[in-house]
Structures are given as structure tokens and as C-alpha cells.
Amino acid sequence: MRILLLTSFDLFPPVHGGSSIAYNFMKHAATRHEVSALISHLYSLKGKADLPGDNVHVQYYRPSIFDHLRVLSFLVNPHYYCAAERLFQESQPDVIQCETLWPVMAGWYLRRKHHVPLVCVEYNVEATKFADLGRPWPIVAVVRAVERFACQHADSVITVSESDREQLIEQYGAQAGRVRTIQPSPDLSDFRFDAQSRAAVRERYGLSEDQPMLTFVGNLKYEPNQRAVRRIAEYVYPAVMEQRPDTRFVIIGQGAELLAECRRENITLTGYLSREDLVAHLCATDVFLVPVETGSGIRIKIPEATACGRAVVATQQAAKGLEVFQEGEIVRVEGVGPQFVTAVLRLIQDPALRSAIGARAQARTQEQFGWEKTLAAYEEVYARIGALSP
User: Fold this and answer.
1) Mean pLDDT value of segment 199-227
2) Do domains 2-185+370-384 and 195-368 have the same CATH topology?
3) Where would you tag: which of 14, 85, 104, 160 has the fewest CB atoms within 10 A of its CB?
4) Per-domain residue ranges of the chain
5) Residue 184 binned pLDDT confidence (cut-offs 50, 70, 90)
6) Confidence of residue 297 (pLDDT cuts 50, 70, 90)
7) What is the 3-state secondary structure (H, E, C) of the chain?
8) Each residue of 135-180: pLDDT tens digit?
């Protein structure tokens, strides 16, 4: 079948959870389908497209004055609509798939004009996230109206957690049968433990094997991740350093320049890392930190870390939707308070415990995740809406 993918971000390189999922979707879907993608230089590092093959077709829409509206520009930007129409004519898709809420109006325009099924992939309940972030009520109202429209007019809506699915059904009256939860998956061919990579990264930082390395990964241009890093610097860091002053904190992600005030003697902000270097850093990590308290996104970083056998300490919010992990496989705490610090210190001080937790989490990840399973779930959605023959 032929799939037209509309995104509000760049995929080359993938710099956040959403772009990682869309990148992996294209990579794996193209093994048996034809995928055309209209992507954006918004939030882009302008990397080289690295998904070659006859089944992959990538186009960027041109920048315009509408870009200053950021993600909301996709709702009103006529240049984007025209680019989507041109790519539709070139690719003649069997299904239109919008990655995130923002291109959904362009997707619906194409659906209505050409009578091709529309799938909307929601990485958050966006109106709730915007409200939690304190955005002005008129913007929240616009986002809520668009989200309601998507839930009522898309042929299928895909969420990344069951709680998001239930909220969309309850809040917008979406038909239960049209909303499907598909668990995001790391690419298990990339994310796996490698002892040589661990040793090389630890040598880079001058760490002996018994010196703790704690890591956070996230797009640092995303406000919830900025808040998480500040919580690490202002709360977790001093408490841990009091007990283990030899600990190294490593913060990974695009936008490190926005958090210069969080630099400390033992806190390194790396900026963006290539996928290979990211995996190497995960292998070098002793405890993976996820102190995210709002707008936790698609939650792909946790299974990426557990695929590498890392012990994870996460807030309940950050781990929402990851119920596949059972007690003893990741450590969940209510928020970034004394419980969070206690859990981190316990794992620092007990290498056998963190090794056991990491091993159990890795086994669960290999059992429950993988793009063959994820792609099959998408194909079930396509078959149900008539884009793919069952």
C-alpha cells in the first residue's frame, strides 16, 4: 500500500520522541509499503535524509512567514496545504497519516477532497498539555477545538497510552472503536547493550567503573524537559553529591544552550548526540533519570534505556502508559521529591540491585517491544478503515 505521512517536524536526524517514532515508522514500513513524507525544517538540525530506498520519498515544504506561529502554523499555512496537495498527487496514497495533531486540518482537507482514509497519531492529549504548561486560554481553546475535530473526523486516532485513549473518548466523545492505543517502540536493532561502547564513553568522562553516571535524555527545547533538567540541577544533584560526590550527571539533548544556568562541576550538557553516540551513552549509564512531571510526551526514552539494560527511576507521569513494565523492572515514584532522591541513591549504592532491575527491564523490553509488532498494529488499523485489505 501507499502511505502519505504528514509531520510538523523534521526526521533527519530525529531529535525528540515524536521524530524518533516517525523515523522508525518510515524505516520499517518501507520494507513492505511505499511511504511518502512531507516534513518541516521547523525545530530542525537540517541533517541529511538517511533512509534511502525505492519505497521512501521525502519532501520538505518551504519556509514561510507563517513559521513564527510554530506548531500552530500547520493549521493555517496555505503553503503547507499546497505542498501536501502536490505530494498527494505525486504519491496517490491509500491512507493519509498525520504524525501529531498539527497537520490534521491539511490531512482532513485531502481526505475530503480525495476520499482517502485519514489516521491521526496523538502523542499527547494536546489541549491538556497546553493547559498544564500555562498557555493562554485562547490558545488552549483553539487546540481543544482542533483536537475535538480530529477525534470526530479522522477515520482512526492512534494514541500512545491507554490513559490518553480514555481521555480522548471521555473529553471529545470519540467513538471507542476508532481510537486505538499503539505502544511506541525503540528500534531494537539499534538500542542494545555493548560493553565496548560503555567503556569508551566512561573513559571519555574520566570515570572508573565504580563511579556513578546518571543520565537524562530529552529535547531541551521542550518545556517539560527543561523543567526536568532544572529539577535535577536544583534538587537531585545537591542531594546525590552530598552522599556520592564522585557522581557524574550527563544531560543529553538538543537545546542545551537554553539551560546554561544548570551547568555544575559534575553536570555535563552534551547537546544533540547522534543515535550511535546516544546508545553508547545509555550503555555507559548506571541510572537513567526521568524526572518529568508534566507533558511527558510519547515515553520512548524509557524503553530505549531499558533496551540497553539500564535501571530507570521515573515519575509516575513520565512512566504513564508503560504498564508493560512490572514492579521491579523500573522504579516509579510519585514526583521529584525525597522518594525520587532515595530511589536514585539506593541504586547508586547497590550495583547488584541496579544490575538486576536493568536485566529484568531489558528482558521485558525484548518481549513486549519491537517494530515488527508495532507495524503490525498499524496495519490492523489500516485494514479496519479499508486502506489495506485484511
Assistant:
1) 94
2) yes
3) 85
4) 2-185+370-384, 195-368
5) confident
6) low
7) CEEEEEECCCCCCCCCHHHHHHHHHHHHHCCCCEEEEEECCCCCCCCCCCCCCCCEEEEECCCCHHHHHHHHHHHHCHHHHHHHHHHHHHHCCCEEEEECCCCHHHHHHHHHHHCCCEEEEECCCHHHHHHHCCCCHHHHHHHHHHHHHHHHHCCEEEECCHHHHHHHHHHHCCCHHHEEECCCCCCCCCCCCCHHHHHHHHHHCCCCCCCCEEEEECCCCCHHHHHHHHHHHHHHHHHHHHHCCCCEEEEECCCHHHHHHHCECCEEEEECCCHHHHHHHHHHCCEEEECCCCCCCCCCHHHHHHHCCCEEEEECCCCCCCCCCCECCEEEECCCCHHHHHHHHHHHHCHHHHHHHHHHHHHHHHHHCCHHHHHHHHHHHHHHCCCCCC
8) 999 999 999 999 999 999 999 999 988 889 999 999 999 999 999 9
Q: What is the pLDDT of residues 313-353, one digit of tens each?
A: 999 988 887 888 999 999 999 989 999 999 999 999 999 99
For the domain covering 2-185+370-384, report its CATH number: 3.40.50.2000
- What is the residue whose three cell numbers read 512531507? 38
Average confidence (pLDDT) over 190-198: 96
Of the pLDDT bands very low, low, confident and very high (cuts 50, 70, 90), residue 296 is: low
Q: Which fold has domain 195-368?
A: Rossmann fold (3.40.50)
